[in-house]
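Schema walk-through. Below, the input block comes first and the output block second. Nothing else is stored per chain. Lengths vary across the set, and this one has 398 residues.
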Amino acid sequence: MMRRIAKVGVVLLLLASPVGTQTLGKSDDHRNPNLDANKLGEWLRDWERTILRDDATQYCSAEAGEELGWKMSPFLKGFYNGYLATGSSMWVDRLVACTDAWLKRAVREPDGYLGWPKLGAAGTEVDNLDSFYADSIVGEAMALTPVVLMAAVIRETPSLAGQYGSKAEVYLDLAEDIFKKWDSRGAWRETQAGTAITVELPFGINETTGKWTGEYEKRKSLEFGFSHPDNKANLVAAWLLAMFDATGKTIYVKLAEHWFETMKSRMKRASDGTYEIWNYWEPAGSWDYRSYIIPKHWIGIHPNPGYYDIDVAAIVAAYEHHVVFNEEDINRLIETAIRDERYWTALVPFDETVQQHFERSLHPASWTALIQVPWYAAIQRNSAHKPMKSRVSVRPVL
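--- output ---
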């Protein structure tokens, strides 16, 4: 029933693992049929015009809360992937300029940590969470993922370390402080099943006094808070994997592992051996119910297919790190993608049918292509190279 993972993809570069450095068993003799070089060149030219025309500075210099992720991170990911695709330091320059414009807008919050607060940062009206003036773990995680991966590449690349090395250290120190911030605020909770999930916290900053609202003292109470939907929890977990890649500290990968155990438990097998499409949100603990009976949010499949692309990208990243998901899971996702004609982009390196659909449907000047074009070009470029002898996982990010 289940096909083996088609050996049609990139030679996956050295992958970080909680138990040491390992590589997956892909062979240089089995690569994707490369996209025509002229076509790939056209895509990159269209992508470059688009990402430069759209002027990332308007987002890097203005966004806060969850919009750091949805509006600013596509540029940061595009610049990071652009460097991996081309080897040109101009994309490192762009990423540094965007990151610095973002970081200089940080404010010191009542617990001493930096943040980028705004009204509506939670991205949900559940429990009136959008009424708080607060920052967003989701937005910060999305923005920091390409930044810390770029910092890791800078550290490992002599030609970049001289010019950008001090920036890389600043970015990594900041990212570790941001993790400590959210950990101290109780952003991760143990689920009913003993795994973990991130939550939206029920407090903010009083804009008049500059102090926390009264709910701050209840931030770790199991009576308050709201679990993230899968896509947001997956984005945070992807950041944790990037933090492990960049620092080698197992605290990050272990916490990501606890979330991915939650994610996998929600993916039910269909009778044909594929996966049923999982629910967008599910209650994870007592805090997700009203009066301990009624879920705070509807439970079902979300009509926005992009949320499931996010889920699968994180699952693939977990698989590449040998965390929770295995080859059988990737096979099942491939079969599910083809059955339902979802063709999740993160599966492109593993299946020719998914790859061909991606190549037919990609619009290189679109918003999603800001990330996808250089991501795909980096895969094509790196497929010609053997695994690198380095702890850092140099991988494009979706």
